[in-house]
Design brief:
The complex is a heterodimer of chains A (244) and B (278). With 244 residues, chain A is mainly α. Chain A has helices at residues 2-17, 19-41, 52-70, 72-82, 86-91, 96-124, 133-156, 160-177, 189-196, 199-211, 218-241, and strands spanning 46-47, 50-51. In chain A, a hairpin with a 2-residue loop joins strand 1 and strand 2. The mean pLDDT of chain A is 91. Chain B starts with a strand and ends in a 5-residue tail after the last helix. Helices cover 36% and strands 29% of the residues of chain B. In chain B, helix 3 crosses helix 4 and helix 4 crosses helix 5. Classes of the chains: A mainly alpha (244), B alpha/beta (278).
């Protein structure tokens, strides 16, 4: 427990030091999406009985939770390849479980911060939805899944450049295809089915359902939970592999 | 305190360790001396759980490092070759995170951190961000950090590499002080004078194997007291003498084209391996 707290505390101390620029950085991309897609392109568009901006904000929250939870990979990478602080964790009596839990919780915290930024941004543009337990539960599971995936991949890559490539191949496509910007049922059936398998698609769907006050469906939550468990186990395995 | 038997480790086709065996007794200041690539850092990395061995066995305080790695890690402190500190954290925060990693309770963590900051003379920098410290201060902080949880065995991997001579001397004094307090020190270095000054026993390692292990004096025994380096068109050649008069006479006979100095560990290493340490 103490070592878990040490891993988490270290990430939080760094986050606190960078808080102002971090919040600013977390605001830029959602703001651009709100301005370009939400207001300029989608100003007159309606999705079902909602304005496009109302449709967009929960999707952006899901996307931000994914990108910021996954961003923990970059921090681990720097700690591993540049600062060599990761060696301090390897040399200490820290069980793998503590390390992975500490890092995924740090990813979850970053994700919550990013989601809060999106919700505040939405509120500034007049979007007020139901951000209750179902909404946060969906985003928590999504964040845990992607933070775990981030830990796993950060342990498996050999260079910082590899890490950037993984973000390009996994996170960027998922951000655009995971139901953030358009409803998947507007696509041809095969495409909708294929993209519906992505974890972010489940997160977007569950977050929207929660935010719109629709009846709770267990399916997306179970899929996200499954992804989180698989990625967490992968992370545990990958930490052991990280020794040369 | 430490026993290594037939340790082997390869990186692809390169044999980093080729059946390395050695023992370190409690309380020793043990210098592991060899040129770059000899296997020093690989040995330390394996003993501290940063690398996996291919085969062999290592025991620390009679505990096999593979059988109970977490217990072994509690017994050891590591000062790595790189300054692996968090620059964006303060000096005290770095120590606090370390204490938590080793499961130290809050009051003890604070007390020991303050104690060891004073020990390395950094108490006035407790609130400074680590990125504002000089190289020598960072190295002292790393030493304080490695001692905070009270290890019985301290690994120092090239602790003075890249530091200027004055700071190097300060670190040496600190290492001596740590050893006198009862901590066994395992030091890797490729600085001859560092090993000579600090070590109660030196171990020469070359191409992943131990070449010799004895006190600095014993290792140099048999070479004499004085060395003369004569510089010729094909490089320098060293000859050894029992007393200074003989050495001076030798220089005279070589038309004075040589220099006289005390025999050192590098001479012993050169004699044993045909290679220089530095």
């Amino acid at each position: 427990m103490s070592s878990l707290m040490a891993v988490y505390l270290r990430e939080m101390l760094i986050l606190r030091r960078r808080m102002a620029r971090q919040v600013l950085a977390m605001s830029v991309t959602p703001l651009l999406y709100v301005l370009t897609f939400g207001l300029a392109l989608g100003g007159g568009v309606r999705v079902g009985d909602r304005s496009y901006l109302e449709f967009l904000i929960p999707g952006l929250a899901a996307m931000s939770s994914m990108t910021q939870a996954f961003a923990i990979a970059g921090e681990i990478n720097v700690a591993r390849f540049y600062l060599h602080v990761f060696e301090e964790f390897q040399a200490a009596p820290v069980p793998r479980l503590s390390f992975v839990l500490g890092e995924t919780l740090a990813g979850l915290t970053r994700a919550f911060l990013a989601v809060s930024v999106v919700l505040i941004l939405g509120a500034l543009f007049g979007v007020r939805l139901d951000y209750g337990a179902p909404f946060w539960a969906a985003l928590s599971l999504n964040s845990l899944a992607f933070a775990s995936l981030a830990v796993a991949l950060a342990m498996l890559v050999k260079t910082h450049a590899d890490q950037a490539l993984l973000s390009n191949f996994i996170i960027t496509p998922m951000a655009f295809l995971g139901g953030t910007f358009f409803p998947l049922d507007a696509l041809p059936a095969w495409a909708g089915t294929a993209l519906g398998l992505l974890p972010l698609s489940h997160a977007s769907r569950a977050a929207r359902a929660g935010a719109f006050g629709l009846p709770w469906e267990p399916g997306p939550y179970l899929c996200l939970l499954g992804a989180a468990v698989v990625f967490f186990l992968l992370a545990l395995w990958a930490v052991a592999k990280a020794r040369d | 305190m430490l026993k290594i038997e037939n340790l082997r480790k390869s990186f692809g086709r390169v044999k980093a360790l080729d059946g390395l065996s050695l023992e370190v007794a409690p309380g020793e200041l043990f210098a592991f001396l060899g040129p770059n690539g000899a296997g020093k850092t690989t040995t330390i990395r394996i003993l501290n759980g940063l690398s996996k061995m291919d085969s062999g066995r290592a025991l620390i305080n009679k505990v096999d490092i593979l059988e109970d790695p977490l217990a072994v890690k509690r017994l050891c402190g590591l000062v790595a070759q790189h300054a692996n500190l968090d620059g964006e954290l303060t000096v005290m925060e770095n120590l606090d995170v370390h204490g938590r990693l080793y499961g130290m309770p809050g009051p003890e963590r604070k007390k020991r951190a303050a104690e060891f900051l004073a020990y390395v003379e950094l108490e006035d920098r407790a609130g400074s961000l680590v990125k504002t410290l000089s190289g020598g201060m960072k190295r002292r902080l790393m030493i304080a950090r490695a001692l905070t949880h009270g290890p019985g065995l301290l690994f120092l991997d090239e602790p003075t590499a890249g530091l200027d001579p004055a700071i190097r001397r300060r670190i040496w004094a600190l290492v001596k002080k740590i050893n006198r307090s009862g901590v066994t020190v395992f030091l890797t270095t490729h600085y001859i004078e560092e090993a000579e000054f600090l070590a109660s026993r030196v171990c020469f390692v070359n191409e992943g194997r131990v070449v010799a292990a004895a006190s600095p004096r014993e290792v140099m025994d048999g070479l004499g007291q004085w060395a003369v380096d004569v510089y010729g068109p094909e490089g320098s050649e060293t000859s050894f003498f029992g007393d200074r008069t003989e050495a001076a006479a030798f220089i005279q006979s070589a038309d004075g084209a040589g220099s006289i100095r005390r025999v050192n560990l590098e001479d012993a290493f050169l004699r044993l391996t045909g290679r220089r340490v530095g």
